Amino acid sequence: MNLNVSYSLDQDVWNYLNSVYKFVWYKHGRDNIQDKIILALPEKFKTSLKNAKNEKEAKKIIKNFLLQGLEGRKIKYLKVAKDLKKAWKEKGPTIENKLQKIYGKEFPFKTVKVFLSSLPICPYNFKKRWIMIFAGASTEKQIKILTHELNHFMFYYYFDGLKKELDEEKFESLKEALTVFTNPEEKGYPNQKRLRAWLATQNKSITEIIESGEWKDHF
């Protein structure tokens, strides 16, 4: 898989808008997740954003904040991008093979776009094949994040049809719990603790597990 890595101001603004100004993602039992994300942000910025009258004003506040030191950040992120691409070139084939093995299906992605973000949260767009990754993480951690998100991409690619029989929250919970196969070092989210623990005992491929239907008893 070819990995394209870059920084986009507009994309970073979008991440702040959806993760700091408001939190639009499933929390999966992480009650204080938004507080953790904004912990390192300047108090003046957080206050301004909290007092924003609407989304348009919030977007302007975020953009002005991110414009500070932008050129220096871009230079720094060029190295981050270079290091991540180099690491993927070395480790990517092994990760792709692992995903093929645990799913029992072909790894279908030829190119994925990575947008570096100054926020420690990593949203993605499966349809457009992009993932956001925290630029402040170590290269090793970024590779683990990428592996986690590519597990999600495999799930969406092969099992999108499950949405018809599950509500969206359960569908997303199954998706998150399945990362136990690629990222067993992660604690996982509170809402998937029981399902994740059961999945960790299984020796079948993810495809075999899902087709068996036994996972439905462990939410």
If you had to describe this structure to a student in words, what would you say it looks like?
With 219 residues, the chain is α/β, with parallel strands linked by helices. It has nine helices and four strands. It has a four-stranded mixed sheet, sandwiched between helices. Strand 3 and strand 4 form a beta hairpin. Helix 1 crosses helix 4 and helix 3 runs antiparallel to helix 4. The longest helix is centred in the middle third of the chain and has 34 residues.
Average of the residue pLDDT scores: 96
Give the total of beta strands: 4
Unreliable stretches covering 5 or more consecutive residues: none
Approximate strand percentage: 5-15%
Proportion in helices: 40-55%
Which H/E pattern describes the elements?
Answer: EHHHHHEEEHHHH
Shape: globular
Our count of helices gives 9
The structural class is alpha/beta
Largest sheet: 4 strands, mixed
* Ends distance: 33 Å
Radius of gyration: 18 Å
In the sheet with the most strands, the strands line up as: 1-2-4-3
Give the oligomeric state: single chain
